[in-house]
Amino acid sequence: MITVEKYHGTGNDFVVVAADAPVEDREAFARRLADRETGLDHPDGERVGADGVLFLDLDADAEPPRVEMTLVQPDGSIAEMCGNGARVVATWAAAETGRRAFVIDTPAGEYPAEVGREGVTIGMGEPTFDPGAVPTTLGEPLIEREVEGLTVTAVNTGVPHAVAFVEDVADVDLERVAPPVRHADVFPEGANVTIASERTAGPVQGYDQRTFERGVEGETRSCGTGAVAVVAAAHERGDVETGQSVPVHPPGGRLVVTRTETGATLQGPVEREFETTVPADGQVAQR
Predict the structure, then answer these.
(1) Which among 7, 85, 138, 191 could bridge 160 via Cys, Cβ 3.0 to 4.6 Å?
(2) What's the average pLDDT block by block, 10 residues per block, for the chain (287 residues)?
(3) Domains and CATH numbers, the chain
(4) 172 part of the active site
């Protein structure tokens, strides 16, 4: 049996496993534990799944400490980057080390992280609209063009996103409109599909956001790279200024994205849910 922990960042939830745990088949392990019907045994007695499994390799002797993050998604694929996952990693590393600043190593590069009173802030790097980096099959940036019936902007914020601004995210049947865009030929590696609508009611301005995530193949409660993609696309079309901090509201809570001179930062809360043990193959006993 191995020990695992469950965390979430604004509803984007993950199983956390130390990288040296004796898991021989990470793909099968993640598929089993992420399953919403048969995944983990919650202390309250219910079965819960997750949006993925984070395998974490901590180097506490580095200055600052570094964590190699590998996110295996529910379909067994590896995500290059995950903004909310990175915030979970920093929270886990802070509990392990007592430190507050870290560097998180991912397949998409390294990301600085800081755990503070207002939550965890990740330096997300420079969003790119370059067609070769998103990637798309086009020879120019894909900016507000129709793809499979949805007008989208393609941007990579660690992973590719197709961002669409709509009148009201609540009125969109995301499970219907997103898959054709996610699998469109113009995205050779697929794309997350993120929709956003301007939030004008109430004292807090910003955007409402919903994201259909590749690898999860469904809508998640929150997507950090998607929140950054929304602000990056809004900045590209002149709706957000450099230096502006923008609240972004996925279904699971509130994130704040700041478009800086050199990139973007993502800030938001993280919660540790529980700890439990599972077999090394992830095969939790059937009820």
Answers:
(1) 191
(2) 94 96 94 90 84 97 97 96 98 97 97 95 97 97 97 98 97 98 98 93 77 96 98 94 95 96 96 92 65
(3) 2-124+270-278 (3.10.310.10), 127-261 (3.10.310.10)
(4) no
